[in-house]
Automatic annotation (TrEMBL):
InterPro entries: GNAT_dom
A Pfam family this chain is assigned to: Acetyltransf_3
Domain N-acetyltransferase span(s) in chain numbering: 4-182
Protein name per its UniProtKB record: GNAT family N-acetyltransferase
């Protein structure tokens, strides 16, 4: 098989490349599931202890751009091929033209712009290719990295649900962000 040429590739930025999640990516999933603080911030809960079997089954379910609960999962790689994260796009509301995303970057790669760069690729896909009108996200209070990233992407804070998420022995606020296509076009294009 010859080498792919990425000179004019939609799924790539100057920092990361998105590719289909593969069954072989189970190991990344398994080891990142030991990061309890990241699980609390992303999933608003802690998961049961990770197992190799669960990570393999999960990776099999989401591999090859399979639609799983209206989500399509991608691996995030650096341009050098280092697997740094996972991102998915939630396409569950065609009627209203809204979409969401889920993002997880391994701890050693956080704060380097990989997540923001991957989000920009999927925002462009949602708005410019899928004809969607609004991106929405919720972030748990204390997830400063995600809050900062959403603001950097041009999202507006649209509301706060006080004491809405229970984890780690207390209630946390859930902060809602949104970005319309109209605002995206003013900022990103």
């Amino acid at each position: 098989m010859r080498e792919a040429v990425y000179d004019n590739y939609f799924w790539q930025s100057d920092l990361v490349r998105l590719r289909a999640w593969s069954e072989e990516d189970w190991e990344w999933d398994y080891y990142t599931n030991f990061d309890t603080s990241a699980a609390r911030l992303a999933d608003y809960e802690i998961n049961l202890p990770p197992t190799v079997l669960n990570s393999k089954k999960y990776s099999e379910r989401i591999a090859n751009l399979a639609i799983n609960n209206c989500r399509i999962a991608f691996a995030i790689e650096t341009l050098d091929g280092i697997h740094v994260g996972r991102i998915n796009i939630l396409l569950d509301d065609d009627e209203n033209g809204t979409f969401g995303m889920g993002l997880k970057i391994s701890s050693e790669h956080r704060g380097k712009g990989y997540g923001t760069s991957a989000m920009k690729i999927l925002l462009k896909y949602g708005f410019m290719e899928k004809r969607l009108n609004k991106y929405s996200a919720s972030v748990i209070e204390g997830n400063e990295g995600s809050i900062k990233m959403h603001k950097k992407l041009g999202c507006e804070q649209e509301g706060v649900l006080k004491q809405n998420i229970y984890t780690n022995g207390r209630y946390y606020a859930e902060i809602y962000f949104g970005l319309t296509k109209e605002d995206y076009l003013k900022i990103m294009v």
